[in-house]
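[step 3/7] inverse_fold.run input=structure_tokens len=112
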């Protein structure tokens, strides 16, 4: 059974940092592209970052480039999103994505 399980969200002050984790079950993790998305209340879900299967190449949305870092550990079937210099506009539910599957999300709230 395929499951993607996010963790690491929470409440943080503006300027702070959080590290999100996503554990993937039931997929050939090491061969798949891994992504993070987020959705703010009342807005559409938006793409945040992508990392290819080998981890050699990453890409980011303009709104997070330079502040967020996506990574993966293929030995542990886990992906990560290190978020720094957070601002209130980063508030939302963060989802990990792999092979057309989406996790249930983890809430990130940044207070001003």
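[step 3/7] decode complete -> sequence:
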């Amino acid at each position: 059974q395929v499951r993607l399980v996010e963790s690491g969200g929470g409440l943080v002050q503006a300027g702070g940092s959080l590290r999100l984790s996503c554990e993937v079950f039931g997929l050939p993790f090491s061969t798949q592209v891994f992504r993070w998305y987020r959705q703010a209340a009342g807005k559409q879900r938006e793409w945040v970052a992508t990392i290819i299967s080998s981890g050699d190449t990453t890409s980011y949305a303009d709104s997070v480039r330079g502040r967020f870092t996506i990574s993966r550990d293929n030995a542990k079937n886990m992906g990560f999103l290190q978020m720094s210099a957070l601002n209130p506009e980063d508030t939302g539910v963060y989802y990990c994505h792999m092979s057309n599957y989406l996790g249930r999300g983890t809430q990130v709230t940044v207070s001003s």
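[step 4/7] annotate
The mean pLDDT is 98.
The two ends are 40 Å apart (CA to CA).
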